[in-house]
Amino acid sequence: MANFFANTWLLWLLITIGAFFYWRGLSSQYFSYVLHRYLLALGTLLVVSGIVFSLMEVLPGDCAEKYIAYKSTQGETITQADIDAERARMGLDKPLVVRWVKWVSNLALRGDLGFSCAKRQSVNLALGDRFWMSFWFCIAALFFSYLIALPFGILSAFSINKDWTDKNPLNSKREKIVNTIWLSFNKLLDLQLRLISYLGLALPNFLLALSIILLYVFAGESAPTGLYSDEWRNVPWFGDNGFEVDKLWDFLGHVWLPIFVIGWSATALQLQTVRALVVDENNKLYVDAARARGVTGMALWGGYPVRHSISPLFNSIGFDFQRVFNDLPIVAVVIGLTDSAALLIEALAQTNDQELAAGILFLVALVVISMNFITDAVLAAIDPRVRISVLGV
Amino acid sequence: MAISQLLAKFGRKKKPQSDESYYTAGQLSLIKDRFKRKMSGVVAAWILATMVIMSFFAPFFSPIDPTINGADIEYRRGSPQWIHFSDENGFSLRPFAYTYTKEKTGFDFKSLAAGGLDALDALTSSDALSSSSQNKYIINTEQRRYLQFFVQGWEYSLIDLSFAGFDLDWRSDRHLFGVENGEIHLMGTDEDGKDVYSRSIHAIWVTISIAVVALVVKLFFSLLVGGVSGYFGGKVDAVMMSFTEAVRVIPPIPIYLACAVALAQIDLTPIQRYFAIAVVIGALDFAALGRRLRTHILTERNQDYILAAQLCGSSTWRIIWRHLVPSFGSYIIVDTLINFPYVILAETSLSFLGLGLTEPINSLGVLLQKAQDPDIQQNMIWQFFPVVLFVFLVMAFVFVGDALRDAADPYAEKK
Q1: Cβ contacts of residue B406 below 8 Å, gap of 6+?
Q2: pLDDT tens, position by position, B263-314
Q3: Which of A177, A180, A291, B20 has the most other CB atoms within 10 Å of its CB?
């Protein structure tokens, strides 16, 4: 009995969560919306698993060949019949759909991502903490890019349709000069900031990372590749004299490079998004109404268009995560990280490890979908209009 | 003040337009009018246009054949040759370059061949074999090579439509510039002696054309998915949108990679490979645009003009293509331009991993991949010229895209 539950724990967890939403949804519109989103997320996950699994079919080679190839290095002679027998034993001769159902049911029952033939260990074990490492890299890079994109995007939206000079006939000459200087300053600042942030997009990530490493080499210092220096790699976080602060500094001295590189390249699109959202909101009638009531300056900008453009921005965090993860593998290869993004490149381009690649891609999609689910749920809690637009109640 | 007024003069040339023409102007001419008022967009558009035209007519603008046929074996790993107007021998109105000759290694190769170990020792201990000293050239400032315009050189076909079935192959051997008695390498040469400047401007067109093919494929798939699911709605919509949603959450570069690995198994000619990569990049990128098209069509299809078309007996396809898609035309154009840099970046990422286009082809991705070679970074810094071009190209595209996005916004006029 305990064994049965140990093998199917994830399914029970999923059903319990669904049942909870259903039970609360009987009396609450909010929870019926959440249930709706929850089922949609699970459905999308199922489709993702199908896409990822069938995509991995295009990679050359299969498990049986790899296993047999390993055996042949051990000095056994191999025939085609051996490979076929191995294939039959592993169930690889069955049609794609059957294998996919088996993979998905293992995944849904106990979170088992399958067995990596190239590494000859289970994918869950091969990944270990590495996926979390990539996850935090992406979150940190996202945070970095939002930190830049939010204020500067708003500034950019502010100066978007402004003139360089103040032409208001009501203002006195003195006011005009002051306003003109202020507007020109804003325009120039906006242009510079956009140049810098788009430079992050235009400089290819791998070249940027390489150039930074090279600068260190030319300066004669050790380049911040990897996550720790050699001396700190094997030192535990909590040593004899409490927490190792020096290790933390060493870690921070290394970790900034990938975060900076992928964060900078993500900033450009983020900035464009913020800018477009704020401009869109600014064109709406309620902003005009507020302006007509005499609200001006920061009170107008902060309280009306900016405030309302936050929610679509918040809603897109999931896809932003996907975009940042998209850039991570190449940077990880250049910097010599050992996280799941680097594993993904290795699995796809070098070892053709279908199971590992499918597992990592599925996990990324899982994170994106869960983030979308959470942001949807939070937004619906704050803003009742969202629920009505979906449920039509 | 003066600067801002000057800028204002450049940035804002508002023609006094009568209200009539404003209200009857089409969507595209309105966008064009608004676009002209964005200074950064106009500057970027000029830069972009220059680069695109230069790269399209790259053989005309490049003095040297970028392929291995034009490689200058006497000037491998050569540094850029500057154009001068004056030196200690006097001033000249005609710009000129100097003659560069390679330093002859003063080793006795005969004794080396005869088995003289001392000579071998001398060769290895001197730095003649180290990569940085291979770049050394003697500049003969006495021997000027004057710059000439519209010179005859290697033959190329300026416009070749023979592959599309047209009987048009316009061949020429004129080039914009060249020097007398030899070749000029404006941006130096690479390790095979190929001219970096010529390669780079040829590469821009290859990269842009990949992006164009990819975007056309993308547009086709987006219109297909968005149009079908938006027009039919209901179950078709639900199935297609759940599929689109699923494609949208998977990071694209790993998928490109998987497809590129699969393509590497198939034996393709470079040209086929080039199209295959463009199609892969384009076909997987339909999700965002397709979704937006669907939303648009969902709202539009209940409009009266659609009903009128249906009552007139128009077929489903006709309504989609002739009525619904044109109503979305300007958005599609803007979105396509905004996506240009991202497609170019995808191509370079694939090339970086060695899975996109490969060496004999001149694409920016291939040249960028070369730039990560430590030898080039330390000894041949001029091979970063394509990187500079690439940065300019992407930036120009982004700024044009930004200005276009603003110009396409119908409410922008209000403020």
Answers
A1: A160, A161, A279, B34, B38, B41, B412
A2: 877 777 777 877 888 888 888 888 888 888 888 878 877 888 888 988 998 8
A3: A180
B354/B236 same-domain check: yes
Please indicate, yes or no, whether residues B175 and B281 belong to a single structural domain of this protein. Answer: no
CA distance B3 to chain A (A): 9
Domain membership of residue B140 (yes or no) is: yes
CB burial of A91-116 (b: ≥16 within 10 Å; e: otherwise) equals eeeeeeeebbeebbebbbeeebbbbb
Question: Could you list the residue range(s) of the whole structural domain that residue B166 is in?
Answer: 81-184
Q: How many domains does chain B have?
A: 2
Tell me whether residue B368 is exposed, middle or buried, using C-beta atoms within 10 angstroms of its C-beta: 0 to 12, 13 to 18, 19 or more. buried
List the single best residue of B35, B250, B289 to mutate versus A (max A Cβ within 10 A).
Answer: B250
Nearest to A48 among B250, B259, B355 (CB): B250
For chain A, what percent of residues have pLDDT higher than 70? 91
Local confidence band at A198 (pLDDT 50, 70, 90 cut-offs)? confident
pTM of the model: 0.81
Residues B166 and B226 in one domain: no
pLDDT of residue B415: 43
End of a domain among B156, B184, B212?
B184
CATH of the domain at B228: 1.10.3720.10
Residue B37 lies in a domain: no
Residue B261 lies in a domain: yes
* B267 and B380 together in one domain: yes
CB atoms within 10 A of CB B281: 28
- Across the range B333-341, mean pLDDT stands at 81
Contacts of B265 in chain A (CB under 8 A): 60
Q: Do B287 and B249 share a structural domain? A: yes
Same domain, B280 and B409: yes
Query: Does the residue B300 lie in any domain?
Result: yes
User: Which tens digit of pLDDT belongs to each residue from A264-274?
Assistant: 888 888 888 88
* Closest residue of chain B to A203, computed from CA coordinates: B391
Same domain membership, residue B177 and residue B90: yes
Based on the fold, state whether residues B222 and B259 are members of the same structural domain.
yes
The residue type found at B390 is F
Give the residue with greater pLDDT, A225 vs B161.
Answer: A225
Reported as a single tens digit per residue, the pLDDT across A213-258 is 888 877 877 777 767 776 666 666 666 666 777 777 777 877 888 8
Nearest CA-CA partner of A134 in A324, A298, A3, A285: A324
Under the banding of pLDDT at 50, 70 and 90, the label for residue B104 is: low
B117 has a pLDDT exceeding 70: no
Contact status, residue A372 vs residue B245, Cβ threshold 8 Å: no
Three-state DSSP class for residue B13 = coil
Nearest CA-CA distance, residue B350 and chain A, Å: 10
Of the candidates A40, A330, A365, which has its C-beta nearest B352's C-beta?
Answer: A330
Nearest-neighbour CA in chain B from A23: distance (Å): 26
Of residues B40, B265, B368, nearest to A207 (C-beta): B368
